[in-house]
Amino acid sequence: MLKIIDLHARIGEKEILRGINLEINPGEVHAIMGPNGSGKSTLAAVLAGREMFTVTQGKVLYMGQDLLAMAPEERARMGVFLGFQYPVEIPGLSNVNFMKAAVNEHRKYKNLPALSAAEFLKLMREKMAIVGMDTSFGNRGVNVGFSGGEKKRNEIFQMAMLEPTLAFLDETDSGLDVDALRVVAQGVNKLKTKENSFVVITHYQRLLDYIVPDVVHVLYKGQIIKTSGKELALEVEENGYDHLISAL
């Protein structure tokens, strides 16, 4: 599904990614861990097409196509989703109107007819139920006045509506209490299929108690320094990153 080959990227004159190699297959959940400043969020942003970053070297193939040659909106239409660490508020635009426009744009790209108002509202209620959101949130501005947990639930709701093939969740656990974390993680687990894949970016093992990864990568100074199974997250939780860094 996704193959990253020797990816280098910078912001301004500062190089952040220094040779990322990574392959993700359909149906897999990958976790990317690492200390602050290691490049985790940069990697997700580069793959989503954030224009503040410049790719200086490497290739990224998504479904056999050159992902880096695609505009951000084309990547999204092809099924790439980025859940932000800090979801933005959009005053004056309701969740209903925002998601209806996004869903129908995706359907147009797939040569499918737009959903009617009734069809869309039915779909929205079904997807809101996945993350325990009250339907009243549909008429509120996107993330306006939402708590941290509500914003993260809204991100997972958006993902459920768009049904991406490849989703990057950037520190979805940031700022969540245990109950909110459980609800968000359950939503992600309900959306997993044999055809889609998830990349979970996190500092901590606790999220991975709920979203169990197939593969764990540790990123440090823009490079993946170790890849293993889910036991690697437990090793990091017990010993921290220093023991892995010292072994380099």
Summarize the structure in words:
By secondary structure, the chain is an alpha/beta fold. Helices cover 35% and strands 28% of the residues. It has eight helices and twelve strands. The strands form three sheets. A six-stranded mixed sheet has the order 6-9-10-3-11-12, with helices on both faces. A four-stranded antiparallel sheet has the order 2-1-4-5, with helices on one face. The chain has a two-stranded antiparallel sheet with strand order 7-8. A hairpin with a 2-residue loop joins β4 and β5.
What are the defining features of this structure?
Rossmann fold; 6-stranded mixed sheet; alpha/beta; 248 residues; 4-stranded antiparallel sheet
List the helices and strands and how they pair.
Layout: E1 2-11, E2 14-24, E3 29-33, H1 40-48, E4 54-62, E5 65-66, H2 72-77, E6 80-83, E7 90-94, H3 95-109, H4 117-130, E8 141-142, H5 148-162, E9 166-170, H6 178-191, E10 197-201, E11 215-220, E12 223-228, H7 231-239, H8 242-246
Parallel strand pairs: 3-10, 3-11, 6-9, 9-10
Antiparallel strand pairs: 1-2, 1-4, 4-5, 7-8, 11-12
Helix pairs in contact: 4-5, 5-6
Provide a brief overview of the structure.
35% of the residues lie in helices and 28% in strands. The protein has helices spanning 40-48, 72-77, 95-109, 117-130, 148-162, 178-191, 231-239, 242-246, and strands at residues 2-11, 14-24, 29-33, 54-62, 65-66, 80-83, 90-94, 141-142, 166-170, 197-201, 215-220, 223-228.
Q: Uncertain segments of ≥5 residues (pLDDT<50)?
A: none
The number of strands is 12
Taking the sheet with the most strands, its summary is: 6 strands, mixed
Structural class: alpha/beta
N-to-C series of helices and strands: EEEHEEHEEHHEHEHEEEHH
Radius of gyration: 18 Å
How many structurally independent domains?
1
Quote the distance from N terminus to C terminus.
30 Å
